[in-house]
Amino acid sequence: NIPTTFVEDCDDNNPNVNFKSDCEALAKQCIHVSGNGPRKIVIMRGASSGLQKSDLITIAEKYQKQGFEAISPFKEYKDQFSYYIDASMHDDTKWQTVLGKFFVFNNLTPRKISACGSDADQYFFHTGRTVAKKTAYAPYGTGIAFIPFIKEHFQREIITPNNAIHEMGHSFAGLEDEYHTGFDLTLYAANCAPPGREPHWGSVERVLG
Q1: CA-closest candidate to residue 164, choices 65, 77, 34
Q2: End-to-end CA distance of the chain
Q3: What is the DSSP track for the chain?
Q4: What are the backbone angles phi and psi of residue 167, rounded to the nearest 5°?
Q5: CB-side neighbour CA atoms (13 Å) of 138
Q6: Predicted confidence (pLDDT) per residue in 25-63, tens digit
Q7: 93-126 pLDDT, tens digit each
Q8: pTM for this structure?
């Protein structure tokens, strides 16, 4: 594992040239953050997010502690997960979107381009492209979730581990929403949520069914 302090020294805007060769190597690596379980979780970033490498470490730790180890049903299986960051800066600036909410042709791209390989169970790709619409989404059953996240979100807590875990319910397990979204329609099953009730984001089973 690479300590967070070392990764901070290698942040993209750091002028310390003594670390240049190490940082170039680091940028191409898949970095193991924590956990030794067989289910591999990968945290990624698009260039549009403006996130630094050390930011990815912070996000991974938040998702682990406040998400996987705090929210059912994942917390019951917390020993099954291991956490990695893909330190690469992936250029998502030209990926096409629909209404600024969803990517058109790149829903499977994170798995294909990740420095951590294509065999992880879940990829969280952080992008600034869908921030204006505050749209996090995950294609069902792909193991990929797109999270609208930019640097300022660390201070404003706009996107939380709860949101990421919710999206993983879609992408990892193929679960559908179980609350009223305005359409009151799911693709494969009835929406069983009581009318007028706001979703409870504290547990996946209350918003996914």
Answers
A1: 65
A2: 37
A3: ---HHHHHHT-TT---GGGHHHHHHHTT-EEEEE---SEEEEEEEBGGG---HHHHHHHHHHIIIIIITTSTTGGGGGGGEEEEEE---B--TT--EETTTEESS-TTHHHHH-TT-S--SEEEEEESTTTTTT--B--TTSSEEEEE--TTHHHH--S-HHHHHHHHHHHHH---B-S--SS---SSS---SPTTPPP-TT-GGGTB-
A4: -65, -35
A5: 29
A6: 555 578 899 999 999 999 999 999 888 888 899 899 999
A7: 999 988 888 898 999 999 999 999 999 999 999 9
A8: 0.78
CB atoms within 10 A of CB 35: 20
Cβ(25)–Cβ(86) below 8 Å? no
- Report whether 163 contacts 136 (CB < 8 A): yes
d(CA 140, CA 172): 8
